[in-house]
Amino acid sequence: MATTTAETRTAVADVRLDRVTKRFDDVVAVDGVTVEIPRGSFFALLGPSGCGKTTTLRMIGGFEEPDDGVIYLGDQPVTGLPPYKRDVNTVFQSYALFPHLTIFENVAFGLRRRNVARNQVAGRVQEILRLVDLAGTEQRKPRQLSGGMQQRVALARALVNNPQVLLLDEPLGALDLKLRKQMQLELKRIQHDMGITFVHVTHDQEEAMTMADVIAVMNRGRIQQLGPPDQLYERPRTSFVARFLGASNLLKGTVEDRDTIRLRSSALVRVGDELPQPGTAVAAGVRPEKLRLDEDGANRLSGTVKELSYVGVATQYVVETPDGLLTVYVQNTEPGFRSIEPGTPVHVAFPPESTFVVELTEEEEPA
């Protein structure tokens, strides 16, 4: 079971899950999840397919009911309430716009269902269309808009009722890469301007880190780690989080003393984190951009360049060492491209403060 950390806990939570479990036949999709989602935050549920993130979102929205546990919106338990009785709206990947209605009528639909006074509807619709940068499209039909514009219409329709919580079910998945990156920034701006709690489901770690204030990394129905993006990236607690949230080098070994790990090659690596008791199987982790080739450092391993790839902003090297392959990113800051050719002996250095530590499960322990 995972709980919030001190960094993410607030006096008021817009959404709270208390030991929530959901089963489908003999499959446990969500396994005893306890989490608080701070009011006014952009919260991301991140994980691979089948990890339970979409089921969690659907339970918050009322489209699925938990088998155990309680879901709260603010202080009100909403378990058992249908979606229309919850102060939440959902934006789906498919957008689900009404093709026969104008953009104005699509956005106004929820207001009319709530019997908002006719003289208020136009003003509300115009205001929300300006917010999502769609002013002037009121009389067009969805098919006349690009995919990105349709996505913003769906967002406007969900936001026009000013819900307590907006649920986003991989809403950018159908967009091309350039438009997806643009919409990430747009979603963050809109959330900041409106101050509404956004709960966003995605399998894309870059998308979650770009937009979210707080990320819950899920795997096999449980939250593995919860916190702000920089904390999860710099100090992952498990090998799964380390590997899922960007590229990571994990050097397996055992704890030697309070700040040192002995690798399988017998090389010693100093770390900045507090270590468990000596003899514990762990991995010293370091991100590719923290490594330096042929420089001095408190931690220094010998190896040979095996592969290299020029990726524009950086050159990616794969270095073969006695402790396995290391991926190294070298920023291309100087004009011209000067590479270290495959087969060249090198040293890879990295400081203790850039090194994180994860304990290994039994199946990951070194032989």
Could you characterize the architecture of this molecule?
With 367 residues, the chain is an alpha+beta fold. It is 23% helix and 35% strand. It has eight helices and 20 strands. It has helices spanning 53-61, 103-113, 118-131, 147-159, 177-194, 205-211, 229-234, 239-244; strands at 13-24, 27-38, 42-46, 68-73, 76-77, 88-92, 165-169, 197-202, 214-219, 222-227, 249-257, 260-263, 268-270, 281-286, 292-293, 299-310, 314-321, 324-331, 345-350, 356-359. The strands form four sheets. The protein has a six-stranded mixed beta sheet with strand order 6-7-8-3-9-10, with helices on both faces. A five-stranded antiparallel beta sheet has the order 13-12-11-14-20. Helix 5 links the parallel strand 7 and strand 8. Residues 1-10 have low confidence and may be disordered.
Listing every helix as H and every strand as E from the N terminus to the C terminus, the arrangement reads EEEHEEEHHHEHEHEEHHEEEEEEEEEE
Mean pLDDT: 90
- Rg, Å, rounded: 24 Å
Number of strands: 20
Low-confidence stretches: 1-10
Largest sheet: 6 strands, mixed
Q: Name the beta content range.
A: 25-35%
Total DSSP helices: 8
Principal-axis shape: globular
Lateral arrangement of strands in the main beta sheet? 6-7-8-3-9-10
Q: What does the secondary structure layout of this molecule look like, with pairings?
A:
Layout: E1 13-24, E2 27-38, E3 42-46, H1 53-61, E4 68-73, E5 76-77, E6 88-92, H2 103-113, H3 118-131, H4 147-159, E7 165-169, H5 177-194, E8 197-202, H6 205-211, E9 214-219, E10 222-227, H7 229-234, H8 239-244, E11 249-257, E12 260-263, E13 268-270, E14 281-286, E15 292-293, E16 299-310, E17 314-321, E18 324-331, E19 345-350, E20 356-359
Helix pairs in contact: 2-3, 2-4, 3-4
